[in-house]
């Protein structure tokens, strides 16, 4: 099925924070879990690192996207999820308000933005995808998890 | 089949051979007259040559071939061993080693051809080449031909036709029986290499057992093939002999078989046989037996019944055992308060089994430290030569075992320490003479097990650390003022040596003095969960003591509560646990301390260090965990103790690897995560 589609298409996992929609490259997503386990706080880390969890025997750090983007933190709901991302060397979970769906975007549907605003969020964005009249902000995972850049 | 699948065996074995050449050559340097050693070197070089040629590494085999020529002449006593030759041979070994390393990295031998070495070898050899040619000829015919029981090969009609056809075409037909050494581990691989050699020069028309069976190792140590070739018999003997772990070759010609005569009879009457020993071309019978004994002894230490296993698979196994232990701990938690005796007994039994299983898996990962130590004698030789010092390295406890991961990492810091000892520790020959010390310096490298630790000591009888000089340097570098430096203890001063870019060497040499030595050693050892200590006495020598944990993955730990959080402290760093009342804590220069049996012990509030969010409340009794770092004791103030537990260390991952006070994490019985504290960086 996938092969029939346009090869330029990339798939993104869309999640929500407040009413904003964000997307991450689905290739980097290893799993999505409910946030029902306790998180062990790790001292001497930036405040957006909430701690570490036991993911099936493996210890992985968890980051609050809200803290990272300087949004106010909220209580967990039924929909709160941890999206586990994996890059070359790093595995990390990010806490999101809700996971929406998987969308397919062609490269021309993603607009590169560099000068839209001076928002904190801007540092971690690689572009904006448009699906009809919805707007999905595409997150640059490498920058997001680079904790030296706090 | 593809020759590449044997590349790994080739690399491993080549490394072993180069290492044993190194050892033998050192031996030869000490006893230049020892014919046994020369024979041994020759034998190993010969094997190496054969292996390289089989794998198609021509540069390597050319180099070993030329080395062999020189060795051959040495063996014939056409030339006396001198330091020039030894140095040259050592250079050749280095070249061989670099070939092997390049092969290991890239799969091919690269394009460096060391023509200078080959030229030098040629020159040395020409000087002494008198009767070499003659000698090779007489010896290869080898007075040792001896008749052995002849293998019977039944040729069927088809085979007979093939034999006859070959004869019609003017080709030779040989029946070759190869007997492999009984110590041979990978029989089918050897057989394959031999098949390849044979196929290079002819066609194999029959094999007993069948090729499929040989591939599946369904044969004893011998197999017989019928080969059709235009080549000479001697060529096959030479080529097969070049393959290692071949004990015997029996070769005979099969003549034309008339259709009505029984094959066996014919084979018998027309065959000529020859048996050649693997230790080819030996000079005399005595030398031959000696070298055979030598090689037999060598083999014994090297092999045994072994399986080569990828380290990753062992890691998987260890991880599974870790998971099992976590679940076992969890069951133990459930068993508390359980009345049923059957249940508690079962849990106890499970406990014993998992402990044994863990020990067994850890043992599988253990490697004797010998694998690291045995390259040092050669290294010491080179360094001492370069620095013009005389040093005798005495090693002990090579059989001490360490986890594979530690073994891989420990070599580099040890090299640093040994270099340090030679460069800074051991004095020059004149100085030693003046001081009335023996001219040859001594460095002891010892390894031994001490409880759950392995201790490695580098102990020299040199000049010791000049504390005053270090103090001067500390002031010069502006690290501490003059006034304070004089009050520093010897131990504190020595600690400065382990700081980055701190070197006291008057002149910078290649070996040390760039100030990148000891701090690297310290960081490395600490990353392995160990500690380094120094004992030194001016004029008498210094001793560097490395203490490493036997296992890295699973440790005994004490679980403590700080605020609402749980932390683990490695049991081996805990001295004792005491209860005190809050008013026992005194303040000395803003540092909280307590008195414990007249010792002043600094108190560290873990909740502050760990930034634990909690409300301060007045407790009547405080719990203090006394921990030790070397000789120094400190008290960690905690809110409660859960108990002792066997825990599995899990890495925190790359993202959080920069946090010093936490070494790793563990998963508790309830599935939650507890962090493991690094006592050494907290106190």
Q: What this model shows, in words?
A:
The complex is a heterodimer of chains A (150) and B (683). By secondary structure, chain A is mainly beta. Chain A has a single domain, classed as Beta Barrel (OB fold (Dihydrolipoamide Acetyltransferase, E2P)), CATH 2.40.50. Chain A has helices at residues 65-68, 141-144, and strands at 10-17, 20-25, 29-34, 49-55, 58-64, 81-86, 91-96, 98-105, 110-111, 125-131, 134-139. Chain A starts with 9 loop residues before the first strand and ends in a 6-residue tail after the last helix. Mean pLDDT of chain A is 84; it is low at 1-5. Chain B has 683 residues and is α+β, with helices and mostly antiparallel strands. Chain B folds into five domains: 3-141, HPT domain (Four Helix Bundle (Hemerythrin (Met), subunit A), Up-down Bundle); 157-280, Alpha-Beta Plaits, CATH 3.30.70; 311-364, Helix Hairpins (Orthogonal Bundle), CATH 1.10.287; 368-549, 2-Layer Sandwich (Heat Shock Protein 90); 554-682, OB fold (Dihydrolipoamide Acetyltransferase, E2P). Chain B contains 24 helices and 23 strands. Chain B has a six-stranded mixed β-sheet. The model of chain B is unreliable at 130-150, 261-303 and 506-516 (pLDDT under 50). Classes of the chains: A mainly beta (150), B alpha+beta (683). Chains A and B meet through strand 4 and strand 5 of A and helix 13, strand 22 and strand 23 of B.
